[in-house]
């Protein structure tokens, strides 16, 4: 990780990147307590136990840490929203329900180094006065569930957590439970559906008690802030988007994987680290934060990957899930797959999302098959516009934004869907990663 501010835009190289969250991922048995303690593990917790809770909150606020789950809300500020103690319980809930198509940073973090999350949980619990913390994990990742359970057991038996109880809870695999209030309903044993706000979780969250809900990476960043200090963390990234983060590169890139860097790095710089787009091809479009964020194109290669920079380009930083697509990919086909996902995962609570995703799916499948009509393009725009900002939670918005950005940048491909199937314009075999460019997969 480079400590240069993005204004200098010196291109990072593997030698200048100093990892923090990913520091011990390549260490032997990196997930064990012994390995973690060999690399200063739980030193931050020992230091935090000597700091007053209110000062811990101020430390995180001063660092500029913003939520790493997509929304980017200041973490310390969220902690400070809890009302004064009233003698009753208050809770910390870690949102580990990573489900966004293309997003793959929290699962490898928990798999490679679960103790950094648990140490962050213990420090956060002290800061907010919590005695019972929950880690809500996506139930399909059983290997991560077992690793978290083992890590909590190790830390508890070593006496590192004191009186803090940490419960690892496996959900049933619903994307909607990534929304914090739907997650709380699921944790309480009810169907996972978003709640009406206010009241916000800080006032009435889990079991109607004050609750902080934070993303895995947000909480895992806290030990580093305690050890390095707020000034060190704020010195990374940009003035309004401080610190470091994990950028997940997938798709048509030479070396896909996790790249930890300061916020404000550009896709051009990340692609240079990753070996560029696969040989013989060029970048066509990409997502800066998973499938729920508006598409960007090769004209946005130098957009700083921070909250303000990406927003200025008309998209969202989201979860920093950089899905890279070259010229062999049909935009219509890619968006159709995402719409299939969002229609399937809609909880059905609100009409715009429940009905809108159904009709988006019908139209997108017609266009992919080459059976669309000119009226379908107008209907797509109208339906997406009526979903955006009108659904009960952000799931509806997630379905609408790829449609709108796709029409903005690649309208000609949507128009082609009125007469030619996508499989003819963009044969499957050409976009396959492990097939020769000349070979086509039978339809």
Class derived from helix and strand content: alpha/beta
Number of helices: 20
> What portion of residues is helical?
40-55%
The CATH level-2 architecture of the largest domain is identified as: 3-Layer(aba) Sandwich
C-alpha termini separation: 45 Å
Ranges where pLDDT stays below 50 over 5 or more residues in a row are 1-16
Q: Quick one: overall form?
A: globular
Number of strands: 9
At the fourth level of CATH, the homologous superfamily of the largest domain is NADH-ubiquinone oxidoreductase 51kDa subunit
String of helices and strands: HHHHEHHEHEHHEHHHEEHEEHEHHHHHH
Spatial order of strands in the largest sheet: 6-5-9-7-8
CATH class of the largest domain: Alpha Beta
Tell me what portion of residues adopts beta-strand conformation: 5-15%
Radius of gyration: 22 Å
Mean pLDDT: 92
Family: Belongs to the complex I 51 kDa subunit family.
Pfam families: Complex1_51K, NADH_4Fe-4S, SLBB
Catalytic activity: a quinone + NADH + 5 H(+)(in) = a quinol + NAD(+) + 4 H(+)(out)
Function: NDH-1 shuttles electrons from NADH, via FMN and iron-sulfur (Fe-S) centers, to quinones in the respiratory chain.
What does this structure look like?
Mean pLDDT is 92; it is low at 1-16. Helix 5 crosses helix 7, helix 15 (331-345) runs antiparallel to helix 16 (351-368) and helix 16 runs antiparallel to helix 17. The longest helix has 23 residues, at 394-416. This protein has 20 helices and nine strands. The chain has a five-stranded mixed beta sheet, covered by helices on one side. It folds into three domains: 33-233, NADH-ubiquinone oxidoreductase 51kDa subunit (Rossmann fold, 3-Layer(aba) Sandwich); 235-326, Ubiquitin-like (UB roll) (Roll); 331-429, Up-down Bundle (de novo design (two linked rop proteins)). It has helices at residues 33-38, 43-48, 53-63, 75-80, 106-112, 114-128, 142-157, 180-187, 201-204, 216-220, 222-228, 230-234, 267-273, 307-312, 331-345, 351-368, 374-387, 394-416, 422-425, 428-431, and strands spanning 91-96, 132-137, 165-170, 211-215, 244-251, 257-262, 283-287, 296-297, 321-326.
């Amino acid at each position: 990780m480079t400590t240069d501010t993005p204004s200098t835009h010196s291109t990072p190289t593997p030698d200048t990147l100093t990892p923090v969250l990913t520091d011990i991922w390549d260490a032997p048995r990196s997930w064990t307590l012994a390995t973690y303690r060999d690399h200063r593990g739980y030193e931050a917790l020992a230091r935090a136990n000597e700091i007053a809770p209110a000062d811990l909150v101020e430390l995180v606020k001063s660092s500029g840490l913003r939520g790493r789950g997509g929304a980017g809300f200041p973490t310390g500020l969220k902690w400070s929203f809890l009302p004064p103690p009233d003698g009753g319980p208050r809770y910390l809930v870690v949102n580990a329900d990573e489900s966004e198509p293309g997003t793959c940073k929290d699962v490898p973090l928990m798999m490679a180094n679960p103790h950094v999350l648990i140490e962050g949980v213990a420090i956060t619990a002290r800061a907010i006065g919590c005695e019972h913390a929950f880690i809500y994990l996506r139930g399909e990742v059983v290997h991560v569930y077992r690793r978290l359970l083992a890590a909590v057991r190790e830390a508890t038996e070593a006496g590192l957590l004191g009186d803090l109880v940490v419960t690892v809870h496996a959900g049933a695999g619903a994307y909607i439970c990534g929304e914090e209030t739907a997650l709380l309903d699921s944790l309480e044993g009810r169907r996972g559906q978003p709640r009406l706000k206010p009241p916000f979780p800080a006032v009435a969250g889990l079991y109607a008690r004050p609750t902080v809900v934070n993303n895995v990476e947000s909480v895992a960043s806290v030990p580093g802030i305690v050890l390095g200090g707020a000034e060190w963390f704020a010195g990374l990234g940009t003035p309004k988007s401080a610190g470091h983060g994990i950028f997940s590169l997938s798709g048509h890139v030479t070396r896909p994987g996790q790249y930890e860097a300061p916020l404000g790095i550009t896709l051009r710089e990340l692609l240079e680290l990753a070996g560029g787009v696969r040989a013989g091809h060029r970048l066509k479009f990409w997502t800066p934060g998973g499938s729920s964020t508006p598409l960007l194109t090769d004209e946005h290669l130098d957009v700083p990957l921070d909250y303000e920079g990406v927003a200025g380009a008309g998209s969202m930083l989201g979860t920093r899930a950089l899905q890279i697509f070259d010229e062999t990919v049909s935009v219509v086909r890619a968006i159709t797959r995402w719409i299939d996902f969002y229609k399937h995962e809609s909880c059905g609570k609100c009409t715009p999302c429940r009905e809108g995703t159904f009709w988006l799916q019908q139209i997108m499948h017609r266009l992919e098959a080459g059976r669309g009509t000119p009226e379908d393009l107008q209907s797509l725009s109208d339906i997406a516009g009526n979903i955006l900002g009108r659904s009960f939670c952000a799931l509806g918005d997630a379905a609408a934004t790829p449609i709108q950005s796709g029409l903005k940048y690649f309208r000609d491909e949507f128009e082609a869907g009125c007469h030619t199937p996508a499989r003819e314009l963009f044969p499957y075999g050409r976009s396959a990663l492990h097939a020769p460019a000349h070979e086509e997969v039978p339809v």
